[in-house]
């Protein structure tokens, strides 16, 4: 399982990056979600890694 925390706002970012953050289930700064460690989730994290903090 991965713990994903949103640390930067998606406001003003590329539209596809905003949608990726939303698809990860993140809505507010500081919110933490737990996701299964799959290649799909890893790819989404890699796309918007500059806005996230990830712990295993």
From TrEMBL:
Cellular component GO terms, alphabetical: cytosolic large ribosomal subunit
Organism of origin: Peptoniphilus duerdenii ATCC BAA-1640
Pfam families xrefs: Ribosomal_L30
Gene3D superfamilies per UniProt: Ribosomal protein L30, ferredoxin-like fold domain (3.30.1390.20)
Protein name: Large ribosomal subunit protein uL30
HAMAP family, per database record: Ribosomal_uL30_B
Presence of the UniProt keyword Ribonucleoprotein in the record: yes
Subunit structure: Part of the 50S ribosomal subunit.
One record GO biological process: translation
Keywords: Ribonucleoprotein, Ribosomal protein
Protein family (similarity comment): Belongs to the universal ribosomal protein uL30 family.
NCBIfam families recorded: rpmD_bact (TIGR01308)
GO MF: structural constituent of ribosome
InterPro entries from the UniProt entry: Ribo_uL30_ferredoxin-like_sf, Ribosomal_uL30_bac-type, Ribosomal_uL30_ferredoxin-like
Domain Large ribosomal subunit protein uL30-like ferredoxin-like fold, residue spans: 2-51
Listed transmembrane segments: none
